[in-house]
Write a structure and sequence with these properties.
alpha/beta; peptidase activity; 8 helices; about 20% strand; GATASE; Class_I_gatase-like; 12 strands; Rossmann fold
Length: about 280
């Protein structure tokens, strides 16, 4: 069974086969707390499994990060989405950028989702900003998977190669989107893995150990609908925009199983028993 703990209850469990850290860049919404018990449970339900894993959560948005001494204890790190701008200069954002650079130097696996995707890009020398197409991208969007051929040594990547060999890497896939910022330019040496008609960098990787995804593989339909209502109440989107998103969701669903498989395959790529669950 997956063990999930917050900072106050965090203890090393020698029996755990793998250990992950969720770096939260957002506070739990009232809806997610009531329905799921918090975003920690949402992420673990999406990316975890029942193989004796342990997931710790650090509230990065409140300045909480793992100590340097603890970094080596983790097999992977996940950076969540956020209502904040990844190009902002809040102290917690700058500290999180510093941690990403440290993890990159250690060749630790780091998965960034939405804000996390953009923050990784910034931390490693890329450029991020407001979406050049303008406005919010909310709903389900189809992206083109542009990962290179497995026969290309430069493009070869274990977790993608295994998925490709098992015919689990489609040319196109739908994903849930909620963002108004984007990656403008990936870091030097990075490879763009997916793009869409609105966003040029929907997914990128750096080596075998860093993966950024602009969309939200972890989101369920009800979480997205709750976010649409919150954006409408805040005046961030118009009523007609919100209704259009809700109408789309009546007939269109993301390829969530594919995205969860991809994320798990990335996080567990060093474990033959977990690749491509």
């Amino acid at each position: 069974m997956v063990a999930i703990v917050e900072a106050a209850a965090r203890k090393t469990k020698p029996g755990s086969s793998r250990r992950y850290a969720l770096l939260m860049a957002v506070h739990d919404s009232e809806y997610v707390l009531k329905r799921y018990g918090g975003y920690l449970h949402v992420f673990v339900a999406a990316f975890g499994d029942d193989a004796g894993e342990e997931w710790d959560m650090y509230r990065a948005i409140d300045g909480e990060l793992p100590s340097r001494e603890d970094l080596g204890c983790y097999d992977g790190f996940v950076i969540s989405g956020s209502p904040h701008d990844a190009y902002g200069d809040d102290q917690w954002i700058l500290r999180l950028c510093g941690l990403v650079r440290e993890l990159h130097a250690m060749r630790k696996r780091v998965l960034g989702v939405c804000f996390g995707h953009q923050l990784i890009c910034r931390a490693l020398g890329g450029r991020v900003g407001k979406a050049r197409a303008g406005g919010w991208d909310v709903g389900v969007r189809e992206v083109a998977i542009v990962a290179g051929d497995a026969d290309d040594a430069k493009a070869s990547c274990r977790f993608l190669d295994v998925m490709r060999q098992r015919h689990q890497l489609p040319r196109r896939a739908k994903i849930t989107e909620v963002h108004q910022d984007e990656v403008w330019e990936v870091p030097e040496g990075a490879e763009v893995l997916a793009s869409s008609d609105k966003t040029g960098v929907e997914m990128f990787r750096v080596g075998e150990h860093v993966l950024g995804i602009q969309g939200h593989p972890e989101y369920t339909k009800d979480i997205l609908l709750s976010l649409v209502d919150r954006l409408l109440t805040a005046g961030s989107i118009t009523g007609s925009f919100a209704e259009a998103v809700k109408r789309q969701l009546e007939t269109t669903a993301p390829d969530r199983e594919f995205w969860l498989r991809l994320c798990k395959s990335f996080l567990k790529a060093d474990d033959e028993d977990h690749v491509c669950l």
